[in-house]
Amino acid sequence: MSNLPRNFVLLDELEKGEKGGGNGLYSYGLDKPDDTYLEFWNATLIGPINTAFESRIYSLKIRCGQNYPDAPPTARFVTKINLHCVGPDGTISPHKLQILKNWKRSNSIESLLRELLQ
Known about the structure:
alpha+beta; Ubiquitin Conjugating Enzyme; four-stranded antiparallel sheet; 4 strands; about 25% helix; UBQ-conjugating_enzyme/RWD; UBC; E2 ubiquitin-conjugating protein mms2
């Protein structure tokens, strides 16, 4: 069975992102609606209940390069956050976040956001 082309994968992710997910704890979509390469994305996370991040809203910029989904996206928090995998400039270190370190083609923007919420 062959792999779906990049744009088909991203169009599917766009549809899922626009519907929202994770019990309303995250949403994601294209940064600009005219991004025909489906490369630049925005995401919003709401801090989970009973954590230090409870009810806080965090914004991210995500870039799905030309090798996505075979290669992981890059992601950066726009909102200041204190997490072990986030550098001072908000960039998520791929070596410090399990899903990025061990990226599989079956992973997605949604799976990245779910891991960040854990």
